[in-house]
Amino acid sequence: DKENKIEEFLLMATMLMVGISYLYYFIYFPHIIFEVVSKEMFYSIAALQFIVFILAKILKLDHLEKFTCVIPSILMMNLLIFSFGGLNSPGVLWITGTPIFMGVFYKRTGMLTGLFVMLCVFTFFLVFDYHILELVRPLTSIEYKSLLRSNIIQFSALTTVYFSFYIW
Length: 168
Fold this sequence. Notes:
Blueprint: H1 2-28, H2 30-36, H3 39-58, H4 62-83, H5 98-127, H6 129-135, H7 141-167
């Protein structure tokens, strides 16, 4: 059925983008990430996510495939945003995508859950903004601009793909 093929494409596009993002941050910014998040936690979440996703795909467990794509990605996204300064992070715009990403795969319930998660994360970052800034290493101007550019391009590409296929 056409809707399942579109959803399958979006799952694969999301996992591809997640993999690229993990590699990008691991290669270029380990000195920032691993000051806040332990290497073991980062590696464990990433490896487990991809292993379970592949197994779910092979075993045709659609619900597990969706869950493994969406939930760890949102968790890791928030960990990365936290590591780079919370509300001051160049990737803070990704939080606004939570209702979109969850809504595409979990329809109305996912969108409402994503909205709730988004509001909770923003509230957490707002309340603990000062404390987060004490924990993280400030980015240089060049690092910030590079990451901001990268985040805008990735976010724009992924949301364009989502909306194009979802509306189509």
